[in-house]
Amino acid sequence: MMLTQDVDFFIHSYYEFQLFGQTLSINTTMISTTIVSLVLLGLILFARHEIMKDYEEPNAVQNAVEMIVETLDGIVVSNMGQHAPKYKNYVETLMAFIFLSNISGLFGLRPPTADFGTTFALALITFVMIEYAWIKSKGIRFVKDLFEPFFVFLPVNIISEFATPVSMSLRLFGNVLAGTIMMGLWYGLMPWFAKIGIPAFLHTYFDLFSGAIQTYVFGMLTMTFVTDKYGD
Fold first, then answer.
1. What single-letter DSSP state applies at residue 207?
2. Would you give the distance in Å from CA 39 to the centre of its chain?
């Protein structure tokens, strides 16, 4: 009973309403996702505003933006080669959103990526990109790949395709949720003096370090799976 009262995993419903006979609610994940999306949009607009300015010498913001963009471009190009121009906007936006979502715990939010609904939605978008690349490169011949190396492998190949978004979403969701649970347990069960200073180090690991790693892993898997469908 004490665990229920003292530990808060930041899962709250703030407003419920009826739609087509179903009860829906505005919850913590929806609010966090909206905030992260608005922050990302604000950063993009601010960066664009600074880049468009005509300075005699680049300022700190322009240098930082160019460094970030060039780094992300380099990652996408090195992994996707000739296909990078078609997918870099998607991959870089995806990684930016996931990273901001993962580190939002540093600012008192519940990370949107700690909700399976968010990670599964992101994985489904990637799944569509993967299948698009497959059909784009093979045409109707993509059906033939489902029967390789033998006809009996058809069910296995189909399951393998649909397992991709599930595994990607669960990997990201599980790692971020684990950090959220650990922090909730720490704040809820530890004595007051253990909540001073120490949580900063825990947030650095669970939110910043682990968040960056999971962003990179999700982005790499996206690029790898898409590129693999082209057969290059």
1. I
2. 15
C-alpha 169/C-alpha 122 separation (Å) is 7
CA nearest 118: which of 220, 214, 229? 214
Pairing mode, if any, of strands 13-19 and 22-27? Answer: antiparallel
CB atoms within 10 A of CB 128: 11
Q: Which amino acid belongs to residue 114?
A: A
Question: Residue type at 102?
Answer: N
The parent domain of residue 183 ranges over 2-230
Residue 199 burial (C-beta neighbours within 10 Å; 0-12, 13-18, 19+): middle
And the tokens for 109?
Answer: 């939010």
State pLDDT tens for residues 88-108: 999 999 999 999 999 998 888
Q: Which structure tokens are listed for 197? A: 């200073």
Give the end-to-end CA distance of the chain in Å, rounded to a whole number.
57
pLDDT tens column, 158-182: 888 889 999 999 999 999 988 888 7
Domain count, the chain: 1
Please, which residues have CB within 8 angstroms of residue 206's CB and are 6 or more apart in sequence? 105, 178, 179, 180, 182, 183
Residue 141 tokens read as 């011949």
Q: Which helix (H) or strand (E) holds 74?
A: helix 60-80
60's enclosing H/E stretch is helix 60-80
Q: pTM of the predicted model, to two decimals?
A: 0.85
Q: Identify the helix (H) or strand (E) that includes residue 123.
A: helix 116-138
Compare 195 and 49 and report the one with higher pLDDT.
49
Residue 167: predicted pLDDT: 94
